[in-house]
Design goal:
The complex is a heterodimer. Chain A is mostly helical. Chain A has 21 helices and no strands. Chain A is 75% helix and 0% strand. Chain A starts with a helix and ends in a 10-residue tail after the last helix. Chain B is an all-alpha fold. The chains are: A mainly alpha, B mainly alpha. Chains A and B meet through α6, α10, α11, α13 and α21 of A and α1, α2, α3 and α4 of B.
């Protein structure tokens, strides 16, 4: 009898232990409260709310709200752009990828980076010279406002919502693990803070939150990389040798692996990452916050430098994590299965912070990771709200001329609406496989936003019909191809083989959009088409010289 | 901008020189970065062992790592080259042109 009770108790104990183990593995169990992290995060929140208060005093007009009055310098804007790009997904995701796969992580970094020179050569000054608040100002410059604005707004909102889902779910899980808060509490906290920053402080607060976070993140990652390198006497060879001894893939981590296996998916990934960047509304919007084309180009120079530097650091941190986290004594950072990391598998950077700097530095990096999410979701929310208020409300559906105050109020309401939607989506998608959202966001940005933007700047014969039909073809082909691809068709819908074998189907959807834009433009013989063509020269002169540009400083 | 102003600027040799030199330069740099990046991608797709080769027999470092880091640095240097020429030569041309335009308007 006693024996049976004992064995029953043991079984129960084992079940609980196993449940705890799996919970840890999936990162769904709240950890104990992390006091240093919470204190540092509260300092950050207090500081940024102070900035928001300061910014709210200076945010009076629509121009202040959307573009911080156009008074951001090139260096500040470049730092903010780098901050938008150094999201939690790239800080944790790329370090985690290097940790898991070694060299393949670097391939992704390079793809994300090489879009920037192209943005500089082709897009940044042109945007500054032609636009005012959103990139639709450029695409609708000489085309018919309503249909082109609606297309651009749909493309923007789709990208913003998808990106927000990824950030919110990531935020909830991360905060749950790092701070010991419940998932729902974490998601609501992020949503409320981002509404506060954007609705009260507009672009000025959003930019400064982003700059502060970018500086903190760069300082933190620089320190971690230096600590890693100092362990190995600043010898890369010593670091790599040790890493290959510890990693289960051995020397395979030193060369390209299975991540990009065939030429078509390699090229397709390249197109999605490169042109997707040039179609992200929250990034494009930042070019309107500087005074002129000169500051716009300086922004890209600074951003490219900071992002490139950051990616080199993620590579060092990923390898450092293999040695110091995976190779830590007694598997201190591993979950019960002895293989995966505690929490989520992309927690390599966070545990590395603990390995090199102890509890307080872990607290610092946790607070920075939280700040990163807040800053990125704020930028996204502002871009989404601008698409609703400036493109849909003021320039597509309003029947009479909208005054600035009213447009700003709509933007603030849209901010609250997007914030609430983000909270709801964040909670609804908690247990869903959300790997598809980033692939979809980049593919839509590359296939719907970028081709229309590019053609409207460079191609004289573009007509409203061509832009609208081509843009929607890009949008829907991106959507359909991603659904039929491996991330949705097989991983989520459970089919055996994907119909389209590419995670990023941009190699098909981007040319399709360009061809459709071309075809439906040249066959367009309407009066409106002729007007669009006639007005190109005036547009091009403003684009090339900045003469007549909004907010331009006369020399 | 009136139609006359548009035509006047379009026919200004300074404008034509600015547009043709700058767009040629921008397209050249774009093609350079595309060639470098896609060459890298094609090596990964068709010949991963090239990038996986060790830089020297007794080193763990593989060729792909300096190449990858070099592409990152190269992208940054290209933006620097563009900004330098744009700030100097192109903005100089642009300012001359703007003076012409202001004279024309008076």
């Amino acid at each position: 009898m006693l024996g049976r009770i004992l064995s029953l108790l043991m079984l129960a104990g084992l079940t609980v232990a196993m449940a705890a183990g799996t919970d840890l593995g999936e990162g769904t169990k709240a950890e104990e409260l992390n006091v240093p992290a919470i204190v540092m995060f509260l300092i950050f929140v207090a500081g940024t709310l102070g900035i928001t208060y300061w910014a709210s005093k200076r945010t009076k007009s629509a121009k202040d709200f959307y573009t911080a009055g156009g008074g951001i310098t090139g260096t500040q804007n470049g730092t903010a752009i780098a901050g938008d790009y150094m999201s939690a997904a790239s800080f944790l995701g790329i370090t985690g990828m290097v940790y898991l796969k070694g060299y393949d992580g670097l391939i992704f970094s390079i793809g994300f980076l090489v879009g920037w020179p192209i943005i500089l050569f082709m897009i940044s000054e042109q945007l500054r010279n032609l636009g005012k608040y959103t990139f639709a100002d450029v695409t609708a410059y000489r085309l018919r406002q309503k249909p082109v604005r609606i297309l651009a707004a749909l493309g923007s909102i789709a990208v913003v919502i998808l990106y927000l889902i990824a950030q919110m779910v990531g935020a909830g899980k991360l905060i749950e693990i790092l701070f010991g808060l419940d998932y729902e509490v974490a998601v609501v906290l992020v949503g409320v803070l981002m509404i506060a920053y954007v609705a009260f402080g507009g672009m000025l607060a959003t930019t400064w939150v982003q700059i502060i976070k970018a500086v903190l993140l760069l300082l933190g990652t620089t320190f971690m990389s230096l600590m890693v390198m100092s362990e190995f006497g600043f010898s890369f060879d010593a670091l790599f040798t040790k890493a290959t001894e510890i990693h289960s893939k051995g020397e395979a981590i030193m060369s390209p692996g299975g991540l990009v296996s065939d030429p078509v998916s390699a090229i397709s990934l390249g197109i999605a990452l490169m042109f997707g960047t040039a179609g992200l509304p929250h990034i494009l919007m930042r070019f309107f916050t500087v005074a002129d084309a000169k500051e716009a180009r300086k922004s890209v120079f600074v951003a490219t430098g900071l992002i490139g530097y950051f990616y080199v650091l993620t590579f060092i941190m990923g390898f450092g994590a293999i040695v110091l986290v995976l190779g830590a004594e007694n598997g201190a950072y591993l979950a019960a299965d002895g293989e995966t990391l505690k929490g989520m598998n992309n927690m390599a950077a966070v545990w590395l912070a603990h390995a090199v700097g102890g509890d307080y530095f872990l607290g610092f990096i946790s607070a920075v990771a939280f700040a990163t999410i807040l800053a990125v979701v704020s930028g996204l929310t502002l871009a989404g709200a601008s698409a609703i208020s400036h493109d849909l409300y003021a320039n597509a559906f309003a029947t009479s001329k909208v005054d600035e105050k009213k447009e700003m109020n709509v933007s603030k309401m849209a901010t609250v609406g997007i914030g609430i939607a983000a909270i709801i989506f964040g909670i609804a998608f908690e247990k869903q496989n959300i790997a598809f959202v980033v692939a979809l966001a980049f593919t839509i940005a590359a296939s719907a936003n970028f081709p229309v933007l590019f053609m409207s700047i460079f191609w004289k014969k573009l007509t409203t019909r061509g832009a609208v039909i081509g843009g929607y073809i890009g949008l829907f082909s991106a959507l359909v191809l991603v659904i039929l691809g491996p991330v949705v068709w097989t991983s989520i819908l459970g089919n055996a083989e994907p119909i389209v074998p590419y995670k990023f189907p941009a190699v098909f959807s981007v040319p399709l959009a360009f061809i459709a834009i071309w075809f439906f433009s040249i066959t367009d013989k309407s009066d409106d088409a002729q007007r669009c063509i006639d007005e190109f020269d005036a547009q091009d002169i403003r684009c090339q010289t900045g003469i007549g540009a909004d907010g331009a400083v006369d020399h | 901008m009136t139609q006359e102003q548009v035509l006047e600027i379009k026919n200004n040799p300074k404008y034509q020189k600015l547009v043709s030199t700058r767009s040629k330069f921008a397209w050249t740099l774009t093609i350079v970065i595309l060639v470098v990046y896609y060459a890298f991608i094609l090596f990964i797709a068709f010949s991963p062992e090239t990038l996986g080769a060790r830089v020297s027999p007794d080193a763990m470092m593989t060729l792909g790592i300096p190449v990858g880091i070099a592409i990152i640095i190269f992208a940054f240097v290209l933006t620097g080259i563009y900004v330098k020429r744009a700030n100097g030569e192109f903005d100089g041309l642009l300012n001359d042109l703007k003076k012409d335009v202001e004279k024309g308007m008076k």
